[in-house]
Specification:
Elements lengths: L18 H4 L28 H5 L22 H11 L1 H4 L8 H8 L5 H12 L2 H8 L3 E3 L5 E4 L2 H51 L1
Antiparallel strand pairs: 1-2
Length: 205
């Protein structure tokens, strides 16, 4: 399973994009920069689908008895759209592994949905830590309404695990850099205080 990393700004696609988000991107795919995730992550980038993703069934348009969702607002930001998706669809609200072809379901249910904004919102969602954790142990994918569908192949679970490990490593490196910078700043402050104390002592003499 390939995952999205965060998004800045909404127009780019992550090279580790998840299969469901890759389906949303036209060929040739733009680049996602997904370091903004819905729960502080992603940041989402798109790569080609692996063999498992390519052969996974693409969800069909909703049945006639499925009501259309609230139309997307013109000029809506990816994060605002994601919030709307989380309010209206169980798959997003409960952070379930999304069906391959979830973009087609969204386009069928949300008239006038901007494709670029949709891809960016999917990148933020699927690149989030919460989604990656769900995918790491996922057995099945789900449509917008939370109905179980295709099984999740081992490669997708392994990819999610790999992305989580990379995210944890980067976070650990970031925190270490912050600690080192703070320690250096403290050392500089102490040196300045000593120099000032010496200067004050000599000036009195």
């Amino acid at each position: 399973m390939k995952s999205m990393n965060t998004i800045t700004p909404a127009e780019t696609v992550d090279t580790n994009a998840t299969p469901e988000a890759q389906q949303a991107a036209p060929a040739p795919a733009p680049e996602f920069d997904a370091n903004q995730a819905s729960d502080s992550a992603p940041e989402s980038s798109a790569a080609a689908l692996d063999a498992n993703a390519e052969t996974a069934p693409v969800a069909n348009a909703p049945a006639a008895n499925q009501p259309a969702a609230k139309p997307a607002t013109a000029g809506q930001s990816p994060r605002a759209l994601l919030k709307q998706l989380q309010q209206e669809f169980p798959a997003f609200r409960d952070c379930l592994p999304l069906s391959i072809g979830i973009d087609k379901q969204l386009l069928a249910r949300m008239p006038g949905l901007d494709r670029k904004t949709m891809r960016a919102a999917l990148g933020i969602h699927t690149g989030s830590m919460r989604y990656l954790r769900a995918m790491e142990k996922a057995k099945q994918r789900f449509d917008l309404d939370g109905t179980a569908g295709a099984e999740v192949p081992d490669t997708h679970r392994a990819h999610a695990k790999e992305q989580l490990q990379q995210r944890f490593k980067k976070e650990a490196e970031r925190k270490k850099a912050e600690r080192d910078a703070a320690a250096e700043e403290q050392a500089n402050r102490q040196r300045q205080e000593k120099l000032q104390a010496l200067a004050s002592k000599f000036s009195k003499n």
